[in-house]
């Protein structure tokens, strides 16, 4: 196939895995699909020892327990289950009406977004990889808000196209994080047009982020959300999403404030630390809902 030219075997597997899971989630009945994706999560937990060890190490740090503790092992299994549920539910979001999404969604703190919309500044919503972070984008779109998100550039190219197309169908405009995309300028323009810009910001993909402390150890968070907020005047809020029995809950906090020093570099260091503290509280409240399947702290 022409779409496969130049792709590595790993990239082909990634594409067909994503495409196959999407098709499976949308064609099965909801009850059957939930059982199948739960089984797939258990299969991944059993057959991917490296990933399992990574998740266990992250959960151990959050829980403050040894990695071999029974509580950590149980949390690791649950983290796999909730991640499988995330994929099933996000693939089914395009099939849900506004009423169906609203019935399953519990939104608190919307006044913090509305205040920014009224001021015309746009708003930056920073999220950790928790719950189903696509669901609030869908809910907001169904209620007339304009939502954009920056996403990691995926390979192969047709996987990125599939990913972007899916997000567009659930009401989220995607800006791929590419070296040649002038992402900062695109996001600044959208904020100037009074959009909500959602940034999943608990991983430093470029390795040039700000050092913060979370759960008693140093790690890095991206500086982008702080830089955008400080340079555009758009407020920065934290908006974690949690999985509930029947759906999802989003808690939008008030804008993060710091005393400006007049030195942008200094302020860019301070604001991510406020972000880290808010992320830490959210993750501590629902540890197994944190879909961190990469090392969260340096080895």
Can you offer a commentary on this structure?
The chain is globular, with a radius of gyration of 19 Å. It has helices spanning 9-27, 30-47, 49-63, 70-92, 98-104, 110-119, 134-142, 157-169, 183-192, 224-232, 264-285, and strands spanning 105-108, 123-127, 147-152, 172-177, 196-200, 210-214, 217-221, 236-238, 241-243, 248-251. α3 (49-63) crosses α4 (70-92). 35% of the residues are buried. The strands form three sheets. Strands 4-3-5-2-8 form a five-stranded parallel sheet, with helices on both faces. Strands 1-10-9 form a three-stranded mixed sheet. Strands 6-7 form a two-stranded antiparallel ribbon. α8 (157-169) links the parallel β3 (147-152) and β4. It has two domains: 1-95, no CATH class; 97-290, no CATH class. The chain is an alpha/beta fold and 299 residues long. It is 52% helix and 15% strand.
Blueprint of the fold:
Layout: H1 9-27, H2 30-47, H3 49-63, H4 70-92, H5 98-104, E1 105-108, H6 110-119, E2 123-127, H7 134-142, E3 147-152, H8 157-169, E4 172-177, H9 183-192, E5 196-200, E6 210-214, E7 217-221, H10 224-232, E8 236-238, E9 241-243, E10 248-251, H11 264-285
Helix pairs in contact: 1-2, 1-4, 2-4, 3-4, 10-11
How would you summarize what this structure contains?
The protein is α/β, with parallel strands linked by helices and 299 residues long. The protein has eleven helices and ten strands. Helix 1 packs antiparallel against helix 2.
